[in-house]
Amino acid sequence: MKRLFSILIVLSTLSCSKDGVVRNPYLQEVGFRFDMNLNLPKYSQLTNIGSIVFVDNAGVGIRGVYVIQSGIDQYRAFEATCPNHVPNDCSTMTQNGLEVTCSCDDLVYNLFTGQLINPPEEGKRYYDMLEYRATRSGRIILVTN
User: Fold this and answer.
1) Tens of pLDDT along 37-78?
2) Which branch of life, at top level (predicted)?
């Protein structure tokens, strides 16, 4: 019985994939941690659902991070660099309401979901926005990668 159990454990371990995530080849992994105090005027608007703050501090993301309150006590944070280009002069996205646009090719992304809204019909692989972790503890939103 022990032998059968050991075989089952080995087989189940071998049959599991790592995580099924396809890494974006255009954007490098950057490690960072950034606290946003909701008591500060710069971040206080994040107490309203649908509110967005752009954080362009050095060392936060590649080219900055968009943070949105997506629901009651739910936050999402997305990289400000277009996920379909190597970072360059035109790849930092600009916000227009609840969307951001890449000026390199006018690709538009939704800030609630990070999804590409207007994919070209070329058959090429396009990536959604790179998402970072955003968690709230009291009056602090912690954004990390």
Assistant:
1) 999 999 999 999 999 999 999 999 999 999 999 999 999 999
2) Bacteria
> b or e along 67-87 (b: 16 or more beta carbons within 10 Å of the residue's beta carbon)?
bbbbeeeebbbbbbbbbbbeb
Evaluate if residue 3 carries a pLDDT over 70: no
Q: φ and ψ at 22, to 5 degrees?
A: -95, 115
Is residue 34 a contact partner of residue 65, using CB atoms and an 8 Å limit? yes
